[in-house]
Design a protein that fits this description.
Elements: H1 37-68, H2 75-88, H3 92-96, H4 105-121, E1 126-133, E2 141-154, E3 157-171, E4 175-182
Antiparallel strand pairs: 1-2, 2-3, 3-4
Length: 183
């Protein structure tokens, strides 16, 4: 179709821009990211599990500590535990848990006498702790008395000796034996 007369439109054919001069085509829109619900759920579950494990470790430590800590709650209990450690199991490390300064020389000497006598007679003494009496202690000091019975069969005859003892204790983050005297 011809342009109307008097129009200013030229009769030059339309020119096209060569393809190498065209602007690059707009990139296609990025595909929508998949929702990361699974990753979020796994992260939350892992966090909760980590907290539960940490809490379990703390509870386990506290229970273990309470179960293995020596009982120093009462003077009479401490004396019995101390005598068991010194005379029966002869474990100085355990005995030290129940003393003020690591050892009580008079009890160490008494134990050495028992060991010497056992070797001399070629017998093993049975040690019993009896008649443990602990009057009500004051706030930080206590006195406990106990009888230590040594028994053995010597030459086919059951023999037994008793030795009364007096123990002085102090409350130093739990009761501890500070001294012992044979009465």
């Amino acid at each position: 179709m011809q342009p109307p007369a008097g129009s200013q439109v030229s009769r030059v054919p339309a020119q096209r821009t060569p393809p190498e001069q065209l602007a690059p085509p707009a990139p296609a829109p990025a595909p929508a990211r998949p929702k990361r619900r699974l990753r979020t759920v796994l992260a939350v579950v892992a966090g909760v599990m980590a907290l539960l494990c940490a809490g379990g470790a703390v509870v386990g430590f506290v229970l273990y500590d309470r179960a293995t800590a020596p009982d120093r709650s009462a003077p009479d209990v401490v004396v019995v535990n101390y005598l068991q450690a010194v005379l029966v199991t002869r474990d100085d490390n355990k005995a030290a848990l129940f003393t003020c300064d690591g050892s009580v020389p008079t009890m160490d000497d008494y134990r050495d006498q028992i060991v010497s006598r056992e070797q001399e007679l070629k017998v093993a003494f049975s040690i019993n702790i009896e008649n443990v009496v602990a009057p009500k202690p004051d706030s930080s000091n206590a006195v406990v008395t106990a009888v230590i019975r040594r028994s053995a069969i010597v030459d086919g005859v059951q023999q037994s000796l008793t030795d009364p003892w007096r123990f002085e204790l102090k409350d130093q983050n739990g009761w501890r034996v500070c001294s012992a005297q044979q009465m």
